[in-house]
Amino acid sequence: MAGYVPGRQPQHRTGDRSGGQARTPAPSRPRSSPARANPAPRITALGGGQGLSASLSALRRLTSDLTAVVTVADDGGSSGRLRAELGVLPPGDLRKALAALCGDDDWGRTWSEVIQQRFTGSGELGGHAVGNLLIVALWEKLGDPVAALDWVGRLLNVQGRVLPMSAVPLDIEATVRGHDPARPGEVTAVRGQASVAVTPGTVQSIRLLPDEPPAVPEAVAAVREADWVVLGPGSWFTSVLPHLLVPELAKALVETRARRLLTLNLAPQPGETEGFTPQRHLEVIADHAPGLAVDAILVDERAVTGGAFGQADLDGLEKAAERMGAALVLGRVARTDGSPRHDPELLAAAYDRIFRTHGRIGPWR
Predict the structure, then answer these.
(1) C-alpha angle 150-42-63 in degrees, rounded to nearest 5
(2) Contact at 8 Å (CB) between 46 and 231?
(3) Maximum distance among all alpha carbons in the chain?
(4) Which residue of 158, 253, 259, 320 shows the fewest CB atoms closer than 10 Å?
(5) Quick one: pLDDT band at residue 84, thresholds 50, 70, 90?
(6) Tens digits of per-residue pLDDT, 212-242?
(7) How far is CA 295 from CA 154, 180, 199, 262, 319, in A?
(8) Peptide bond just before 145 cis, omega within 30 deg
């Protein structure tokens, strides 16, 4: 499905917040009618950073009934500074998701650029993104992270909704072998998203701090009410897996009637998944969420047939997908410039065909 273009059939390898304070009313957001006669698909995308932005840039081409559920464990850069100084959620990944959902018109393109703009210089504002400050200002004014993000979305006229996965800032702690290159066999705990992302060692597992953090109720509802839930692409340990470690969110992912799509990255990520095979990516998901079944796994065929992953063991990859209950879908979703980035048009076409051929819902267009 990946990289589906007219006239070329993709290959299929099948294997079968809570604070207790009053909430500020958010802008009204129309939903599909209960009957949902020939509706647009209701899609919830989980992740963070550039990976989630790529997925949203593709999915917005297919539906306006789109919700992004975003990780809140970033502790680096502008987000880390605001989090440490003000005790707020890290706004950076939320900002990126909002930018990806801005409309494709002068208003949307302008606001997308404005909220991504960073102040220059070495002063206190240096390095801060405009959108981060806007989001934090609304959080402080309204006292409700979800309502504030809805108001930012209304200002930007975004096509969809952006939610944090939890209303409390989280930390990632990873078990890493060889974090100190001088002791390659030593296993240590590495704390903080920024540190985990660049470790020279091998990440074996992660956990969230605090343990069993509360999920944002709207995020749980978005997963339960979706037609499709899309997980990935993105930094595997710091953007994708954290969603599976928030108990209420993980429970919703297992129990939802939605179909589940996992999108594999185009290349191993230096630090987090250096040296990982495609199969290892799937095994890590299964290790952290053994009860999670997936309906389809989308893989760029060039990445696993001589690309960034080398000549992958496709039979082994197919068996790993089968163990998760998923159909393995090979196609082309990468940009043609050789960079490990998804092409929004190709990814949208891949998603579209997967939703049509693997879903329980009929065509929506």
Answers:
(1) 80
(2) yes
(3) 62
(4) 259
(5) very high
(6) 999 999 999 999 999 999 999 999 999 999 9
(7) 33, 39, 32, 8, 14
(8) no
Averaged confidence pLDDT in the chain: 88
For 3-48, the pLDDT digits (tens) are 333 333 344 444 344 444 445 555 654 444 344 555 789 999 999 9
Q: How far apart are CA 289 and CA 150, in angstroms?
A: 30
The residue count of the chain comes to 365
First-to-final CA distance of the chain? 18
What is the DSSP track for 99-143?
Answer: HHTS-SSHHHHHHHHHHH-B--SSSTTTT-BHHHHHHHHHHHHHS
- Return the closest-CA partner of residue 23 out of 162, 152, 150: 150
pTM to 2 decimal places? 0.88
Q: How many Cβ atoms sit within 10 Å of the Cβ of residue 299?
A: 31
Strand pairing report for 202-209 and 171-177: antiparallel
What single-letter amino acid sits at 133? L
HSE value, Cβ hemisphere, 13 Å, CA-based, for 177: 6
CB 167 within 8 A of CB 147: no
